[in-house]
């Protein structure tokens, strides 16, 4: 196992009715800005619960944070923060609202020349406004982690800092009942692939991390399809297991002390940045291709994955791996996800643009071994055709 330091101080309030915990989480003398997206929270009762929880607080609101949050939108919140002396942010939504709010929090106290430098120059952030999150879409893990992704002019750029980790997160599975099938699928598959990015590398004998990751993968395979089936769609236990899996998949725990890959995400970000494809739907296209192209480097873990996740124990090692990749693709398709570029109407002619974007973003040595050069990324995108 590799050395690591691990701390995740986000306090989690999990379960039905827990939005009321916000009342005691945010100091009564705080000036709060409630941030949210396109309005789903007004249709599913979440907004009303927030209003109730904050009835004794002073608060304002900032809406319109779009999926794949845009830099220009987020910068508009700065005027509201200045005008009202905001000193606490409450994000209510999915990963985009949580991520966008992290950027708003960092930009508000940024001492450099231009907050865009946080993303484009990866300039270090010293402080940020405190954040709480009410999560409405289990997927990204943003509610308890230090990461955020922001888009500007087709460039989708991540940043990470401990100062933007939320102070608390409310996870109420009941608020996920209003999600569309597409968003449920996106969430399950995003969480699955977060787990894979920290698992499918090479073994360092991290038995705890491996078994935790395998538990998450199996839970998502079991529960994900149930959240789409009419007879189990509204089952709160299914939703609870998906929600907790998604948080655990990217709260830092399973990735501590083991190598990590993240090439699927970095290539996927270019597909979203250039063509607007939903984040998770880029991943379900790229991951199977990464598994195929990097089969040699990932051989040991792919075999472990085949045997422990899909119970494949017959045939040669390579045959078991090929079958496991096929079963992964079948799972994504059962979840209604695309698995090829052609499924989203892209083809060979689009690969050059994607490679140029990867190059301009410095994505030249991806993967756990830094072995995914632009040439290998081309092989991956070609395998995804
Ligand atoms: O905007 P509203 O009206 O809220 O609607 C949203 C949005 O249209 C809707 N939605 C959310 N909760 C709902 C709901 N609709 C009905 N009922 C509910 N309970 O769902 C749509 C998609 O929301 P979004 O927040 O964009 O989805 P997701 O949570 O998948 O977030 C994706 C973003 O997170 C980034 C992605 O790149 C993308 O920008 N990621 C962040 C990560 C992190 N911070 O660690 C890691 C991830 O790998 C990912 O990159
Ligand atoms: Zn993701």
Annotated CATH architecture of the largest domain: Up-down Bundle
What would CATH call the homologous superfamily of the largest domain? Dehydroquinate synthase-like - alpha domain
At the fold tier of CATH, the topology name of the largest domain is Dehydroquinate synthase-like, alpha domain
Main beta-sheet annotation: 6 strands, parallel
Q: Helices and strands, in N-to-C order?
A: EHEHHEHEHHEEEEHHHHHHHHH
> Largest beta sheet: what is the strand line-up?
1-8-5-4-2-3
> What structural category do the secondary elements indicate?
alpha/beta
Give a verbal description of the structure:
The longest helix has 20 residues, at 207-226. The chain has helices at residues 22-25, 40-43, 46-53, 71-84, 95-108, 117-120, 181-199, 207-226, 236-249, 263-275, 279-293, 299-309, 317-334, 351-360, 374-383, and strands at 11-14, 31-36, 58-62, 88-93, 131-135, 147-152, 155-160, 168-171. With 385 residues, it is an alpha/beta fold. The chain folds into two domains: 11-174, Rossmann fold (3-Layer(aba) Sandwich); 183-383, Dehydroquinate synthase-like, alpha domain (Up-down Bundle), CATH 1.20.1090. The relative contact order is 0.11. A hairpin with a 2-residue loop joins strand 6 (147-152) and strand 7 (155-160). The protein is built from 15 helices and eight strands. The chain is globular. 5,6-dihydroxy-NADP (NZQ) binds at residues 37-41, 44, 67-68, 93-97, 99, 136-137, 139-142, 145, 147-149, 175-176, 178-179, 183, 186-187, 190, 250, 265, 279.
């Amino acid at each position: 196992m590799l050395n690591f330091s691990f701390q995740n101080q986000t306090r989690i309030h999990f379960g039905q009715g827990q939005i009321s915990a916000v009342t005691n989480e945010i100091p009564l003398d705080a000036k709060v800005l409630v941030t949210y997206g396109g309005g789903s929270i007004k249709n599913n009762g979440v907004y009303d619960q927030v209003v109730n929880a904050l009835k004794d607080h002073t608060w304002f609101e900032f809406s319109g944070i779009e999926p794949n949050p845009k830099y220009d939108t987020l910068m508009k919140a700065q005027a509201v923060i200045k005008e009202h002396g905001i000193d606490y942010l409450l994000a209510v939504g999915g990963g985009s609202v949580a991520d966008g709010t992290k950027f708003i929090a960092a930009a508000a106290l940024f001492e450099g020349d231009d907050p865009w430098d946080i993303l484009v120059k990866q300039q270090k952030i010293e402080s940020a406004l405190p954040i709480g999150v009410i999560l409405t879409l289990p997927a990204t893990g943003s509610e308890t982690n230090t990461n955020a992704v922001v888009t500007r002019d087709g460039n989708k750029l991540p940043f990470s800092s401990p100062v933007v980790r939320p102070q608390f997160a409310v996870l109420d599975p009941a608020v996920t009942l209003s999600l569309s099938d597409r968003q449920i699928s996106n969430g399950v598959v995003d969480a699955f692939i977060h787990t894979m990015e920290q698992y499918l590398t090479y073994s360092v004998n991290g038995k705890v991390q491996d078994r935790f990751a395998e538990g998450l993968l199996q839970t998502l395979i079991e529960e994900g399809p149930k959240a789409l089936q009419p007879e189990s769609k509204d089952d709160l236990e299914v939703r609870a297991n998906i929600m907790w899996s998604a948080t655990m998949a990217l709260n830092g725990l399973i990735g501590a002390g083991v190598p990590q890959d993240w090439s699927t995400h970095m290539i996927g970000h270019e597909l979203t940045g250039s063509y607007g494809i939903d984040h998770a739907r880029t991943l379900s296209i790229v991951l199977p291709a990464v598994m195929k192209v990097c089969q040699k480097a990932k051989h040991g873990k792919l075999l472990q994955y085949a045997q422990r996740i899909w119970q494949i124990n017959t045939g040669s090692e390579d045959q078991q791996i090929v079958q496991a990749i096929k079963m992964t693709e079948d799972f994504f398709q059962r979840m209604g996800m695309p698995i090829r570029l052609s499924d989203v109407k892209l083809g060979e002619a689009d690969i050059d643009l994607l490679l140029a974007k990867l190059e301009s973003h410095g994505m030249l040595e991806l993967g756990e071994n830094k072995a995914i050069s632009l040439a290998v990324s081309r092989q991956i995108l070609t395998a995804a055709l």
